[in-house]
Structures are given as C-alpha cells and as structure tokens.
C-alpha cells in the first residue's frame, strides 16, 4: 500500500488511475502532473520510490483538491446568489445557467445546478 | 356406315368428334408418310405475307349430302379462341418443328450459326398482339433449339421459319471488333464488375504484376483476391509468360479484383485466341452484369420492408 | 341438323388401326427417393425414444409446479488463464513444430559455409549454442514463421551472402572498418530476418552483439525516463533524457548473449568511482552485469562500456555488431513529455541519439568503433509511423545510390512551405557512408529452394512444378518471403 495525500493505494494500480480518483484531477491535469515528475504511462503505484512519493504528495498538497475545491465552488455559487445576479437566481432555481432552452431536456440541470451542492 | 370419310382436315365442317378426327389424320399421315408435309395452314391462322387477305363467305351448304352438313362450325386455327391466337400458332408451329426434327444431329456450340432474333417490341408490333416477355422467352428458347440443328442437315421449312424470326439488319451486328497488339507488344483489355472498372495492359514477360503502380500484395492483402485477379492467367498456366499492368478504379476490393480477371482474360485472348474455350470454361470471359439494386422509397433497402405492426 | 353423338364413335367395332397406346402420355417415371441422412435420422429417432423413456419424470399423484423440478443450468466457464499467461503466449517464441516432417538433408549453417555462394537459395539449420545466443539477445520474433518447421532453419539469399562477405572483409581488414546498413523493404520482405542472419554470422565470428529488437519501446512512453544532468558548457543545447530500464534491458541482452566473450575482456580505462567494481581484477562482464542487475547503475555502466569499446587502448577489442529493428519509430516526436509538458523528440533520448549518431556519422569524424564492426538497422513495414522527413531521408539515400549528386536539380529536397523535422534533417549530413539495402522479392531459384523446403517438411502437399512455382511467385507479389510462407502453409482443398 502506498500513501498519497491521505489515501492508500494498492501497489498494482496504475498511477494515472490513482491520480484521477482525486476530485479535481482529470486526464489533462493528470498528464501534466505525471510529465512534471517524469512518470511514464504504464507506471504503477508500487514503482514509485520514496522521493517521488514525497514530491508527488507535496505537489498535490499545493493544488486545490477534494474538499477545498468543493468549498470553493460552493462559495462561488453563493457569491453569485448574494449579489443577486441572473446566474445566481438560476442556480437557486435548479435551472440551466447558461441560457439553454428549458422546454425539455433539462433533467441534468435540475439535478446538478443546485445552490447547495454535494 | 362407310369408312371414315373425313375429306380434309382443314375443312371447317365436320361430322366427327375431335378425337376421331385426330386419329384419322394420324392414320392418313402414316399411310402417306413421305408425301405430305403437313400444310402450314393446319396449324396457323397467320396471314402469310404472300397470300392476299380476302374475306370470303363460307361455302354454301349442300343439304342433300348428309356428310356435308356440319355438326358445328370449327375455326381454322385450333387457337382461335385463345387470347393471342397468332402467338399461340407460332408456339405450336415451333413446337411441332422441334418435335419433328428432334432426331436431327446438332452442331457443336462453336459451329452454331450466330442468330439474333426479333426483339420483344418488334415481335409485338409484327403480330399486333400483347405478348408478355416471359412468354416470348419461350419462343426464343424454341428458336435457339431449332438453330442448333446442324446447318448441313437443316430442313428448308426450319430455315424459312427461322428467317421469319430473324432481326432485320442483324448481319452487321454479328461481327465484333477484335483487339490488336500495339507497337510496344501490349494488348489492352477492359473489364467491369460491380462498380469497378479495370484496364489491363498485357505484355509478354516474366510474370510481374503491377496494379495501379503498386505490388499486387499491397493492393490486395487477401490471398483470395489476388488469386481471383490473376485467375485467367493461372487457369491457362501463363503466369510466368506475361507481365501485367492494371489500372483499376471504383468499387471495392472484390469488385476490383474480379474486374481485373475479366480485363486480363480479354487482353489474353488478343495474344492467344486459341485459349478461348479454356477461359470460357473457367468463367473468365463472361461478364457479370449484376449491379446493386437501387433502394426504393418506403423500403429500408432495395426489398427489405420496415417492420409491420398492426396497430 | 346436328347429331349429338359422333358417327365414328358408333362404328367402334371395326379393327382399330391406331391403338390408343400411341396417344397415351408417357408415364412419369418415378425416381426412387433416397433419404440421404437415413442413418442419422434413424439414430435420432432412436435416441428420441430412449430419451423420452429415460427422462420421464416419475408420475406423481398430484400436480406440482414444473419449475420447481427444473434445476438451474450451471454453465461451465473455461477457467481464465493465469495472470501474465496471455501476454507470455503472445510473446512466446516457438522454434519447432513436431507435426512437421524432419528434412534429412538439412545442413547446418556454420562459419565454414557462411559465405558459400552455392548455398544461395537453400535452407540451412541453426544449431544449439547459436540458438541460445540468438534467443538471449531476442533476435527471434513471432512474425518470422519459426513455428512452421521441425527445426529452426533460415533461407540463405543473395543479400545474406553479401552481408557475410562484408563481415569477412571487416574480419580481415586491419583498419577500423565499419559497415553501415539501413535495410528497408515491403512488409514481410525479410528485413528482420536479415538482421537475425547478420547477428548469427556475427556470433559465428565471435563478435560482440547488441540488439534492439523493437525500437518503438524507446518512444511510446512505457518505460522510465529521467532528465540527464547537463554540464555547464552544454547548458545551451537541448535537454537530453536517459531511459534506465531500457538501458538495463539492453545490457541484460548483451550480457547473456556475449557472456563468454565479455569474460575475457579487461578494462582499458578507468571507470567512474561510484561503480561498485574492483579496480584491476574486474572484467567487462562484471561491468555489464552490474548494469543489468540494477537500473540505477545501468546508464553509467553503459557509458563506461561504450568508452571501452569505442576508444582504443592497450587491450584489443572485438568487432561489434549493432542491430536495431523498426528504426523508423526513432524519426519523429515521441509520446513522452518533458517537465513543462513539451513533447520530447525521439532524438533527445541518449541511447537513440547515440545509435543514430553511429549510423549517420558525420564525414571526417573518428570511426565510432575501436576495432570496426557493422551497424545493421532495419525499418518496419507493418507498423510504420508516418514521418515524412524520414521518407525524404530514404529518398535521398536512393538518389545517392543511383549516383545523383546532392546539388543536382533532381535531388529530393524538403517540400517548400513544409515543416520538416529539424532533428531528422540533421542526420542528412551523415548519409555518405550509409548503404541502403532495399529488399525485394526472392529470385526464382531462391523461391524454388524455399518452397521445396515446404514440400519436404510436409507443409505443402502437392509437388512443386515450374508452373506452380510461377503461380506462388505471382501471388506473393514477385516472391515476397512472408507471402510465400503464407501460401506454403495454406491448406488447399
């Protein structure tokens, strides 16, 4: 087991897969992180040496991930509501924010565009 | 009663029933076997072009002669009451000829005289009846059968009948252009299959093959396609005698390969015309005229229908 | 007036001249209907009867639901192969087919008949010790049809003989002669086999052999890489990268294939202090072993080894053969990214740069190998990346082979307004000594020898005539080896 940013990963798992489990890291960010530390595509978590793990953890620490990121999104929406903008109102009403039609096909917007997310 | 005195078969009037009449005619025919060629009138109501068309009244009835009194009036042609009597007469005539001359020797396929028969529209306009294409194809079958009779023993009547069905001006059609070998020793053949067209330049050589300037392996990754492209050379065992340069366009892989087959066979025939029977047997000369059937509106494909639901 | 009956029919009493049989329709002959599957049908009926009897459920007094009695069908799933087995299967080299017939007249390929001209177009067998060495340096590939015949054997073609003669020339030359070859050709035209034959002949002559069986591994981002620390004077040039695990693999192959030879080689120069080796007693084998055992030592060990091989010293050095397959993957950008997410070019990897530098050495520079040798690089026909600059490079080599001067008007140049790969363009200055070997189809004699071997091994079960040989050659695009093999093993019904 390898401990990265408070999470334990089994050694046989690919690094790219482990990194993408964090909220806030998608394929593009992951590629940049891996290139930054010269990690190749088929590398597994168990292949990392101690310094690489420390570097990686330090780098992830400096990024806004997981709960920090969630809180920031929350705050952004809150700010929009407080200032009384149109976008803020749309968020409050669980409706599409960016000018889509609402006659049909807004299921996802209703589900996702909440003021109180997560 | 006196022995059967049917005076003449074509007479429109008779005392006897049909069965007896046929029997007696056969009897007569057998007795006077060589003398009579059954007159054409017996079978047909066709107006022969030579005879004047004159409408004549029926002969006056002689009531004193009991034999002359008709039981009922019978038309000259047995197919008088059918929808297309002229056509049916033709069919009967041809059938009788085929039956009559069935024992005559046939000419081998390459010595059969080429014949082009009347087109369906031409035939329709000559007899003035509406004939279905499928029916006319039966006539054509009979004509080709008669045409197969060896020209040396072919009877005159057969020849006359065949000439009547021959397409006017068909003598010019019979000659086809023969290809030539050009100054570089090339012969050119063109073949088509599906949507593909191939043009093949064939030179005497050592067996090199180029298709669109590329090796045949690159052009046709599947061995089967390569085989079918070179089939006409393979079947005649000429693979190491000629060099092939083919230009193909259109269609897919199979179509391109098989269009080369045809083009190659045609080009090979120019070099060696004696190979024609071998190539014919291998199916390399026959052009496959099938094409993709067009899609129709209201259908999913050419024939496929959308799923039918009652409600 | 008409009679309702026929007058003739009344007079039936007379002797009939025409018996009615003449009118009778010929009886339709009844063809006996044969049932083609009578046996199976009967058998089936029998089985049905039996099964009905056997499977009949015991009669019960009351009605019970049918489904309760029906057992769930247990599906027998085949056990999946153990982990790693599928990949091993894919990479497994099978050198023998026990179902094929043994060819009694098969001779072995040895140093004595290495360059015998009369062997052109014959199959020659490979024997034990040589096979182990070739296996250790990963010369065999799954695409080379080794699993068809009883014993591994290879076709000697004219290019092979030529290669052998050049190896002999290098052996006899006192100077530091290095032969450079770039092998190209269509798919399945025998490029990698020629590389294998080169390696075989090098082993016969006790050369040192380095083999890179798959150049793609260096660029497809599946192996570790690290930036090379640069000295101060190099700071302006571009960043280079080392690949420790690939270097380790290279050293492992070299170690196993050349172990006996490396044991005898002593150091000429001092090696870096941080390598855990005994100064004085250590041989080159220890050095290679060190690199092969630990990937952190792989790159310094390789550097030290290369210094020993390329710089002349007190002890003489063996001749060296370097074989690289599918080299065209090295002629463009790689899949790797640098720390600032820029694409790394293949030539930025140290090993790639070094090996390409050997082949495309600039005129006037010192010979790369201390005691001469051969460089045998081949392109790939099946997995070819689209690198137009490399295509231009090949065209230039073809033009040079035809005697076209680089300043002549017809000489191929990069298309105007195109963006040619500058790294590849740099190689063009070193084209002078590289010999382009273009593999085409086999000649008639060679393909005859090859197909005869199929006949004698029992794979091709019809006699080989001139006609059928011509057919094979035409279908194989003028005798391309791999295509001939496909035709030879094809089952014809």
UniProtKB/TrEMBL annotation, chain A:
Origin: domain of life: Eukaryota
Family, as annotated: Belongs to the universal ribosomal protein uS13 family.
SUPFAM superfamilies registered for this protein in UniProt: S13-like H2TH domain
Gene3D superfamilies in UniProt: 1.10.8.50, 30s ribosomal protein s13, domain 2 (4.10.910.10)
InterPro entries per record: Rbsml_uS13_C (IPR027437), Ribosomal_uS13 (IPR001892), Ribosomal_uS13-like_H2TH (IPR010979), Ribosomal_uS13_CS (IPR018269)
GO CC aspect terms: mitochondrion; small ribosomal subunit
Any GO MF annotation of the entry: structural constituent of ribosome
Protein name (record): 30S ribosomal protein S13p/S18e
Source organism of the structure: Capronia coronata CBS 617.96
Keyword field contains Ribosomal protein: yes
BP terms from Gene Ontology: translation
UniProtKB/TrEMBL annotation, chain B:
Record carries keyword Ribonucleoprotein: yes
Species this protein is from: Capronia coronata CBS 617.96
Statement: the UniProt record of this protein carries the keyword Isomerase: no
GO biological process entries: translation
GO CC term (a single one): mitochondrial small ribosomal subunit
Protein's recorded name: Small ribosomal subunit protein uS9m
Listed Gene3D superfamilies: 3.30.230.10
Family: Belongs to the universal ribosomal protein uS9 family.
Keyword terms: Ribonucleoprotein, Ribosomal protein
GO function terms (MF aspect): RNA binding; structural constituent of ribosome
UniProtKB/TrEMBL annotation, chain C:
Broad class of the protein's primary localization: mitochondrion
Keyword set, alphabetical order: Mitochondrion, Ribonucleoprotein, Ribosomal protein, Transit peptide
TM region positions: none
Region described as Disordered: spans on this chain: 47-88
GO molecular function: structural constituent of ribosome
Cellular compartment(s): Mitochondrion
GO terms for cellular component: mitochondrial small ribosomal subunit
Family to which the UniProt record says this protein belongs: Belongs to the mitochondrion-specific ribosomal protein mS29 family.
Protein name: Small ribosomal subunit protein mS29
Source species: Capronia coronata CBS 617.96
